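Suppose you are handed a protein chain with no further information: no name, no annotation, nothing but its sequence. What can you learn? This example shows the usual starting point.
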Amino acid sequence: MKVRVLGCSGGVGSGMRTTSFLVDSDILLDAGTGVYDLTVAELAEIDHVFLTHSHLDHIAALPLLVDSVGSLRQRPVVVHALPETIAALRTHIFNWVIWPDFTEIPHYERPWMEFAPLAIDSVVEIAGRSVRSLAASHTVPALAFQVFTDEAALVFSGDTGPNDDFWRAVNGMDNLRYLIVETAFANRERDLALAAKHLFPIQLGEELAKLQREPEVLITHLKPSDRELIASEVGAWAGHHSPRVLVQGEVLEM
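A reasonable first move is to predict its three-dimensional structure. Written in structure tokens, the prediction is:
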């Protein structure tokens, strides 16, 4: 199993794309602007999209993805998300005002997209790989994800503040190889981070102190305006797990 980092920035700018990870060729974790760098042929191979939550930087590419390749596919793209996230997408995006509702076109019996609700600890099995939904704590209902086979697992925290339920789940995993954790703000933006329910480096260190496994820890979602400062502070505060900042375009192999 390979996980390709399409986007891992907390904002946009030249060479920066927002959150999206491609598992092999057919599973997408979040649908941020990183999806835009895929070819039409690559887009058409995506069968499943797992969304952590409804915020724009994590769903921005979904409407155009479905629109671009729906006619090339033999079955709908399945969007897996919390019921609250699905409701937000139906109300605010796929509402015929912002974008067409692809769950009912070109025909309600042959749609280009369908929704599949998730709950905490749901497991979806897809051709020898499994995706499990984990708890996250954000300003809207949100999930983290574990992607795993019998050999290895990767966990992506999504957008989250402190969350003991998340760490209990992570510490129960025997084959955890990669842990991707967001840290959006610098320490000087502590109040903003707390209000927005994102981590900052001091808080990241406190959260990683709860980690009882030894995966490679990768940091994502750094705000472009403070990227270098956040990276420096992560190195100073994150403790013995020695995390590194995730790089757009890299491939994680499991």
